[in-house]
Structures are given as C-alpha cells and as structure tokens.
Design a protein that fits this description.
By secondary structure, the chain is of the alpha+beta class. Helices cover about 25% and strands about 30% of the residues. The protein is globular, with a radius of gyration of 19 Å.
C-alpha cells in the first residue's frame, strides 16, 4: 500500500457534504503508513442476538452519527481503508451543465437562506469554479475509465496507487483515493483521484474527481473539483439530493 502524505489545508469554505468539500493547502506534514482496520460484530449466541434486537435502534442511531462524522471529515487514520475502482463503477454525468442552465439555482438559494455566509450570487459563482469541466460524462467498467469530452470518448486502464489523507486547518479531514494509468493511452490522464466523503469500501453515490499527470499537484488542487452523479438521475433529482445533505 502506498504511503500517505498527510497534508494540512486551510479551509476556503465547507458548506455542504455534497458540494465544495475541499480547501486551500498551507503545508505538508510528515509521511505516515496508514493501516486499515475493520471491526466485525457477529453475535454467536441466541441471547446475544436478542440483546442486539432489543438495542438495534440505539446501535443504528450510533452508526448514523458515526457515518455523519466521517462524512463531515472527522475520523482516525486507522479507520481509513483501501478501495478499488468497483466503488465508483457505473455511468456518471457532470453536474456542471445543470449549474449553467439554472437547474441547481434552488440549491444555492437554499444555502444562502440557511447558511447566510454568502449570497445566492456568491454561492453560484463559487460552485461555477468548483464544478467547471469539459468532461461531461465518465464511464467506469472494471479497471477501464472512459472520459467523454465534446462527444468523443477516451479510455485508459487504471490500477490503485493508494490514498492520501488531507488535514484541514478547521480540524476536519479528507481522503483522496488515487489510481494510476497502467499503460500509455491517448488523451487520458496519468492519475485520477476520487473524493466522495467515504473512507472505506462503499459504493459511491456521487464523487468529486481530480485528474492530471502530476499526482502531487493534484493534491494541491482545491478550487476546481468536477462533480459526478449517476447518469440516470435528472437535474432536479440531483438538486434535491444536494439540498437533503
């Protein structure tokens, strides 16, 4: 497993779990080996099973709280686990066109009303920079990633290259899952980095993607984070998903 460079990043804005989760870098801390740990709860007796049923609601509530903390960026190094491309397998669409055509305006209106730290216009301008991309669609099938740009498709085969843990000055953290091109291919990046607020094997519901030929410089990219949702979702459904989170 790749050693993770733990970085300290200053927060630009952390306004939603679904949009704008990254921030500006200030310095690099020490490298550290992050080892994944997994806890398995497997009651083996009838009494244990009964106890689990009686307290299932409490356990579920605790699990939900823990998941919310992780999504907000609060976790330990030991909680982070390796992931494969299968977590992001599928057909994905960029949300940028929905920003341009006004479909996401209700998201920015909601944030302006409930957050109050920016106006509607300021939120929309911020996310226009964040979401901007010419890659309107991405299809991930096995180890193959196909980028669709201006109607043309470019495919490369990728393999895992570990993950990087990013520390933010605000106290929360993020994980970028890194994949490297196996063999040279035309018009595809050497590296891709996924950020989806998860830190262990989980099927992604959406993700932010960073790509390019310099892995380290990608880790420093904090203003542009093209964001992708399943292609079968319409824009209004995506907007409601964003508001719900």
């Amino acid at each position: 497993m790749k050693k993770t460079a733990i970085k300290w990043l200053g927060v630009l804005t952390v306004s939603s779990l679904l949009i704008g989760c990254q921030s500006a870098e200030t310095k690099v801390e020490e490298n550290t080996e992050v080892k994944a740990k997994q806890t398995v709860n497997n009651p083996s007796t009838e009494s244990e099973h009964k106890h689990s049923d009686e307290h299932g609601h409490d356990h579920s509530h605790a699990h939900d709280e823990e998941a919310e903390k992780i999504h907000a960026g609060y976790f330990e190094d030991s909680h982070v686990q390796e992931r494969t491309l299968s977590d992001w397998e599928g057909d994905w669409q960029s949300v940028y066109p929905y920003l341009l055509d006004g479909t996401l305006d209700e998201v920015f209106e909601h944030k302006a009303e409930h957050k109050g730290d920016k106006t509607f216009e300021e939120y929309k301008a911020y996310y226009e920079v964040g979401y901007k991309t010419n890659t309107e669609r991405i299809v991930i099938d096995g180890n193959n990633v196909t980028f669709y740009e201006n109607g043309k498709a470019y495919t490369g085969e990728y393999q895992t290259d570990g993950y990087e843990i990013l520390n933010y000055e605000a106290g929360n953290r993020g994980v970028r899952y890194v994949f490297k091109l196996v063999a040279p291919a035309d018009n595809v990046p050497q590296y891709i980095q996924f950020s989806d607020h998860n830190i262990s094997p989980t099927k992604a519901e959406h993700y932010h993607l960073y790509w390019g030929d310099d892995c380290e410089s990608l880790l420093n990219e904090v203003t542009n984070w093209p964001t992708y949702f399943p292609s079968e979702m319409d824009g209004h459904t995506i907007a409601h998903e964003m508001i719900a989170h």
